[in-house]
Amino acid sequence: MTQQVVISGTGLWTPKHSITNEELIDSYNDYADKFNTENADKIATGEIVAKPHSSAEFVEKASGIKSRYIYEKEGVLDINRMRPVIAERSDDQLSNQAEIAVEAARKAMKAANKTADDIDAVIVSCAYLQRSYPAIAIEVQSELGIKGFGFDMLVACSAATFGMHRAYEMIKAETAKTVLVINPELVSPQINYTDRDSHFIFGDVATAIILEAEETVTSHNAYNVVSTKAFTQFSSNIRSNHGYLNRANDTDPYGADKLFHQEGRKVFKDVCPLAAEHIREHLAKHDLTPKDLTRWWLHQANINMNTLISKRLLGREATLEEAPIVLDRYANTASAGSVIAFNLYNEDLVKGDYGILCSFGAGYSIGSLLVQKR
Ligand code: CO8
């Protein structure tokens, strides 16, 4: 018997600190002034280029972002540091990513009416892992008292959807009945706050999702997963070269190319049509069209990308009710954006309504789940 797979609960952990565009840009502009003063001679000879100011108007217009949450604010706005201060923890303390993963997981378990005994597997899937081993998922499993097994996955922007795909397949294959998927997106340490093009893009968050076989569902707010669809196509237009080989490379492990960097315009141009076509094809498999969707929980990288994608598919802009936006206050949270949107905007759908979760970005990677309210 093939199991009907159900999303029966989600959890959202939001950091208590936030940074508005105005705060971030004031700090960046002070940093740029200091840089230009300190390098006046080299700038005068043309050896290096002066750093222009960033602007809150540009950021809001180009991205839709007004503010972002941050795990640790200290240090980020300090123009002599431009990165968060996060104290190293000892091996017997809960690691930072496990801590925020557990916060989101507990909320998802509560929403799905699950205890640790009900869960067979834990997948931690996100854009960065704070270490290679032991897996953060196994640490989370231990902290929550879950038996069974856990593993980590990295798929950048599509880590959350691809993680849910693995859970879906495990439940279908009956190797697990209930799976906890967690996306602890602690991305701020990888942001280059001295880079005008990207300093405003990202925020920290953690999301969690419970997927389970239909027979054990007790949650009143649940969605059948109708099907999943994944796509990848290699591109270096979004890239971080930070990794374990840096030590042997004898290069600066924190140089600009080791942090997040992108060709934003190219990403926009490449990814929007790919994502729109992906959604159209996914729906067509079920004889559905974009007009049949009640809600679109889209990736939250840039409001203009979401507008363009919905326009291509609907022939008009989706309303905020149809395709909710959370990036205005959360910014781009790597893979977690579509899950935040789902968490905040799914309770009003009625039985039989269709919706789609879809991520798109680094890799390139695109992942979708077509769901139907139970
Ligand atoms: N302030 C003022 N002006 C600026 C700024 C700024 N901060 N930055 C650029 N400008 C100027 C430029 O100098 C340029 O001026 P000119 O025309 O005179 O040369 C002008 O504004 C236009 O610049 P751009 O072409 O760069 O600006 P765009 O309109 O293309 O907008 C965006 C830039 C917002 C980056 C846009 O291209 C975009 O969002 N593209 C899509 C990007 C995207 O989706 N990226 C995915 C990110 S990856 C991901 O989601 C997860 C990765 C893993 C997580 C990593 C966590 C750290």
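qc> DSSP finds eleven helices and 13 strands in the chain.
qc> done
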